[in-house]
Amino acid sequence: MKIDDALIESVLRLARLDLPRGEFEKYKAHLQQILDYVEVLGELDLEGVAPMSCAASSPAVLRADAEAESAAREDVLANAPARAGAFFKVPRILDQTEGS
Amino acid sequence: MSGWEMVVGVEVHVQLKTRTKMFCACANRFGAPPNSLVCPICSGMPGSLPSVNMRAVELGIAAGLALGCAIAEKTSFDRKNYFYPDMPKGYQITQYDRPLASRGRFRFPLEGGFMEAGITRAHLEEDSGKNVHDAAARGSFVDLNRAGVPLVEIVTDPDFRTPGQVSAYLAALKQLLQYIGVSDCNMEQGSLRCEPNVSIRRAGEKALGTKTEIKNVNSFKSVEKALRCEFERQRRILESGGRVIQETLLWNDAESATEPMRGKEEARDYRYFPEPDLPPLEIPGEWVERTLASMPERPEARRARLIRSFGLKEYDAALLTASREFADFFESCAALFGNVRRLSSLFMVDLLAVLDEEKTSLAGSRLNPAAVAGLLSLEEEGEINKNQVKEILAELVRAGGDPAEIARRRGMAQVRDQGEIGSVVARIVAENPESVADYREFRENMAVGLLIGRIIRAMGGGANPQAARALLEKELKSRT
Amino acid sequence: MSGSLLTAVKAAELISRGDLKAVDYVSGFLDEALSRDSGIGAFLTIDREAALEAAAETDRAAAQGRARGRLCGVPVAVKDNICCRGLPATCGSRILKDFVPFYDACAVRRIRDEGGIVLGKTNMDEFAMGSSTENSALGVTRNPRDPSRVPGGSSGGSAAAVAAGMAPLALGSETGGSVRQPASLCGLVGLKPTYGRVSRYGLVAYASSLDQIGTFSACVEDNALIAGVISGRDPMDSTSSPAPVPDYMSGLEDSVAGMRLGIPREYVPEGLDAEVRRSFDRAVEVLEGLGAETAEVSLPHTKYVISAYYVIATAEASSNLARYDGVRYGLRREASDVASMLTSTRMDGFGAEVKRRIILGTFVLSSGYYDAYYTRALKARALIRRDFEDCFDRDGFDALLTPTSPVAAFRFGEKADDPLEMYLCDVFTAAVNLAGITALSVPSFPAGGSGGLPLGLQVIGGAFREPEVLRIGRAFEKAMGGRA
Question: Per the residue annotation, which of C136, C154, C217, C241 is the catalytic one?
Fold first, then answer.
C-alpha cells in the first residue's frame, strides 16, 4: 500500500509524536520501504490459522487478593519531572476527549 | 413524547470490593493520602508487569451470573491505547474480544410491575487515577491511588425507552451488586458510574438513529435529567432538518445541559490489541458453579423468604430488603425478638426516620441487634412508651449503649417499688379529700383519673401506671 | 590476579571457600573496566563502590564459613534496560536519561540472592531497537575484537564488557536476537532462554510477547550457571512458566553422540556470505565428528519471519512506549498544556529508530489496517512456530543448527542509513523469538580463518530444551579447543 502525508500525520497524532523539521520525507520513505517489504505476508494462505497473540505456554496463574505494602511515596515521586506536594504536576488539560 | 421515541443503552462502571487492586497488591481503598497506595505496577514504572487478582475475577463471575450472563470458558485481556495524565501506562488493560460474561438478561421492578433488559456484556478492567484541576496553578495534579482499582463494566442492549426505566434499572442494579457483595456502589465516592448512550427515532420505526454518549452523570437524578435534555436536544436538531453526530457529551449538572467535549474526537482510535503480558484466562465450569453456590441470596429471593417465614406484607418486605445491610440487620434482630410485626414497624417507621434525622446509615450507626431487642422488650413490659422507644432509638443510633440504662438515665424507667409508690399515693390521697369523697359517692372514674395524674406528676412521670392504679384503688377502698 | 583466567563457576567455588578473595576477583574486572572502557564504551554506569563493598561483605562471610550462593562473589554486568535498585536505567534513551528505579528486576534479585554482585549497567540500542548499539543516545560501544567495528546489538554493551574481560558474566535482553547476534559478533556464548523461562519483571518492555532476558559468558559452563540462577517461575510475571528448572550444569559434559540435529535449508541460502557458509559447514562437520547425526530439514515459513517480527514487535512497542509521557519520570519538555508537553517530550526524547518503530506499530494497530497487518502477522507467527514444532515434536530432532548472524561484525555507519538492511541482521535469530523457543550462540570458526572476526554457531532447541542446547554447545566448544 502507498502511504501519504495525511496517513503519517494521523498516526503521529495518535502516537503523540512529532518529527524533526525537514525529516518528514525521510521517515515517509523508510516507512514505505518497510511496508513494501512486509507486503509479503499478503501471499500467505491463512485460512483457519489461529493468531498467536501470547507466547506463554501455560494459562495465567492468578494472584490471591492479599494486600502488600505499597511503595514509599518518596520513591514513587522521586523521578517526577514536576510535583506539587504529594502529587505529580502536569500542565493544563485542554483536550477532554481522551479521558476515560 | 411528541411522536419521537428515545432508545437508550447504559454502560455502568462498578468498582469491585476487593482488598487489592486489579493487577497489583496495593490496597483498594478510598480516601487515602494522595499517591500513598501506589507501586511500580499501578504507577506504570518501566519494567513492571500486571498479575490478575483472583478475587476480582470471582466478583466479575458473580456479577455476570447474577445478571443472567454466560461466563466465558476462556477470557482474555486487551490493551486500550490512549494518552491521559491519569493513565500511567498510556493504555488501559480491559477486555475487548473475549469478555468474562456476555448475553445476559436482567429483570427489575418498574412501576409496580417488572421490566427486563438485555445485558450485552460484563467485563473486567482497571480504573484510572485522578486529575485534580487547579485553576490557580494553571495545571493539574495527578493522584494514582485509584489507578488500577478493579472495575466491572456492564453494558446493556439499547432496551430502554424512558428515563424512568433507566433509573429503575440503575437502582435495581445497584441493589443487586451490593447484595451479592460485588461492590459498594457508592456514587458519591465514584464506585458506581454510569454512561448512558442515547438515540431517538420516530415512534414505530425499527432502525436506530445516531447515538451520543453522555459522561459525567453522577447521580440517579441527573441521569433522568440528562436523558430528557439530550432527548430534547436531538429532537430539536432532527425537527429542524439537521443530523445528530455521533459524539461524547459531558453532562453539566449546574447548567442542566449536555455539552460537547473539548478536543478532536475523530482522532480517537483506541488500537485495541491482546495484552501480551497476560495469558488468556481459563475459567473452569467448576469455578463458576462454586461461585454460584456461594453467592449471597439475591434481593428478590430474600424478599420472598421474608414474606414466607415472617408473614410480612409484600410492601413491607420490599422496604426491609431494599439493601442487604438493612435486611441482614432486620433478620439478626428477628432472631432475638419474636414480635416480628412490631419489629418491622420499628424498622420502617422509626429506624428509617432516625437514620434520616441523624444523617447516617446502619453501618455508620452504633446500633446493634441486641440493643434493638432490649429496647422493644422494655416497651413490651410496659416500662416505656412508643415515643420513648423512638427517643432511645435515636440515642442508640448516635452513641450506642444499653436501652434499659438509657431509659433509667433519662428518668423514663417507671418506678415499680411498691413502698415508694405507696407513700406517694398515701400523701396524694390525704391532700385531696374531695376526690376521696367523689370516690365514695361512686364517681370512681373521675376520682381515680385525677389522682393517678397527680401521683404520676408527683413522681416526675416515673411511676408505673398499672402499679400506681392498683395501690391507689387499695388506698381508696381502705377509706370507704 | 586476573579474573578472566578462571571460569565464574570455579571463582564462585573458590570465593565461597575463602580460597579466593571476592575483593580481588571483583577488583580485577573493575580495574580492567577503568583502564579499558574509555576505548570500548561498554558501560553507562559502573557501580564501583557498591560492588567492592558487596565483595568485602562476601569475604567477611567466607571467613566465617557462611558464604553461600552459586554466584558467590561473582560480578555481573547488566544491560541498562534491566532494573537495579538505585542505579540509572536509561535504556540507552534520552527520555530515561535520569531515571533511577527503586526496585530490582527479578533476574537481578535472583543473582544477588545467589551471591552475585552487580558491577554496572551496559550500553544498548535505544529501548533494545537495533542490531549494532549505534542507536544508543548515550554513547558509542566498540567491538573489543576490532574497535573500528560494532559489537552487534542491541545488547552490545554487555557483549563488549564480557569480550573485553571487564566482566565474567552479563545479562542482556532478547527480542529478535539481541543477545545471540552480539555474542556471535564478539566471540562469546549467548543464550536466549525459552519464553517464560526467565521472569521479565524489571526488564523494560520493548515487545512483551518476544522479550526475554538472556545471558553472556566466555564459556558454556558459565552460561549454564547464570542461566540456571535467573530461571524459574515468578508470580510477578504472569507469562513466566511454572515448569521446574532442571539443573543446567549436570549433564553438560554428556556426549552428543546419537543426537539428531537438523539443518534448515532456508538458513543456508544461495546468497549467504561465503565466510559465514564456510564457518557453518565446518561447524557441522565438527558435530558430526562427535557422533551427532545431521540431516537437512525445512522451515518453510522462514521468508515471512522478518515481516511478522517487525509488525508484531513494533505494534507492541508502540503501546509499551506510550508510558513515556513526561508525567511520572524521565524527560519532560515543558509546555502550556498537557498535549503539547507530551508531544514535544516524546519528539525530543526518542531517537529516530524508536520513532520509526512507534509510527509503524501505531499504524499496524490502527483501525482499518489492523487485520491486514497485525492479525496477518500473528497468524504467520503461528505458522512459524508450527515449523519448529514439526521438526522437534513430529520429526524428533533434538536441535537445529544454523549460523547465528548472516554477517560478521560490520563497521560503524555501514548499515545505519538503511533500516531494512539493519533489520535483516535478525534474519536467523528472530524466528526463535516468534516461536518462543530457546537458542544458544557459541563461538565457531572465525571469518577468514584464525585471527579473523568471530562468527557464531546457533543451536536452536524446542521449548524448555535449554539442557540440550547447552550440552551441544559445550561439546562443540570443547571440540573447538575451548576450556576443557
Answer: C154
The pLDDT value recorded for residue B407 is 86
A90 phi, psi to nearest 5 deg: -130, 160
SS3 assignment, position C197: coil
Catalytic residue status for C444: no
Segment holding C114, helix H or strand E = none
Give me the pLDDT at residue C4, please.
Answer: 55
Residues in chain B: 480
Residue C429's pLDDT is 98
Chain A residues close to B279, C-beta within 8 Å: 54, 56, 58-60
CA distance B23 to B26: 9
Report CB contact under 8 Å: C307, A91. no
Is residue B166 over pLDDT 60? yes
Using DSSP bridges, classify how beta strands B248-252 and B212-215 pair: parallel, antiparallel or unpaired. parallel
| Residue among C338, A81, A76, A98 nearest B34 (CA) | A76
Average pLDDT value for residue range C322-351: 96
The number of helix segments (H) and strand segments (E) in chain B equals 16, 16
Verify whether residue C158 is a known catalytic residue: no
**Inter-residue contact B41 to C235 (CB < 8 Å):** no
Q: What integer pLDDT is reported at residue C1 of this predicted model?
A: 36
Residue with cell 558474566: C169
By Cβ distance, the residue of A10, A70, A96 closest to B26 is: A70
Contact A94 C195 (CB under 8 A): no
Task: Output B313 or C286, whichever has higher pLDDT.
Answer: C286
What one-letter code names the amino acid at C52? L
C201, C318, C374: residue with CB nearest B47: C201
% of chain B surpassing 90 pLDDT: 64
Percentage of residues in chain B with pLDDT exceeding 70? 96
pLDDT bucket at C144, cuts 50 / 70 / 90: very high
Q: What is the ipTM of this complex?
A: 0.96
Q: Which of B80, B97, B130, B271 to mutate to test the interface with C (most CBs of C within 10 A)?
A: B271
Q: In the numeric block, which cell numbers belong to residue B471?
A: 395501690
Distance from CA of A22 to the nearest CA of C (A): 13
Give the tens place of pLDDT for each residue, B402-422.
998 888 888 776 655 667 778
For B449-467, give one letter per residue: b (16+ CB within 10 A) or e: ebbbebbbeebeebbbeeb
Phi-psi region of B377 (alpha: psi -120 to 50; beta: other; left: phi over 0): alpha
Buried b (16+ CB within 10 A) or exposed e, C339-373: bbbbbbbbbebbbbbbbbbbbbbbbbbbeebbebb
What's at C53, amino acid-wise? Answer: E
Cβ contact B428:B421 at 8 Å: no
In whole angstroms, give the CA distance from residue C161 to residue C92.
16
A vs C, Cβ pairs < 8 A, gives 177
- Tell me, what's the pLDDT at A54? 83
Q: Which residue stretches of B183-320 are H helix?
A: 220-239, 285-293, 299-310, 314-320
User: Does B137 contact A76 at a Cβ distance shorter than 8 Å?
Assistant: no
pLDDT interval class at B263 (50, 70, 90): low
What is the Cα–Cα distance from A57 to B279, expressed in whole angstroms?
9
Q: Contact at 8 Å (CB) between C101 and C83?
A: yes
Q: Over the range B318-343, which residues count as b (16 or more CB within 10 Å of their CB) and which as e?
A: bbbbbbbebbbbbbebbebbeebeeb
CB contact under 8 A, A34 and C328: no
Positions in chain A whose pLDDT score sits under 50:
100
CB pairs under 8 A between A and B: 153
- pTM comes to 0.90
Is omega for the bond preceding B240 within 30 degrees of 0, making it cis? no
Closest Cα to residue C47, out of C141, C136, C107, C119? C119
Strand (E) or helix (H) holding C285: helix C274-289
Cβ A65 vs Cβ B20: under 8 Å: yes
- pLDDT of C187 strictly over 90: yes
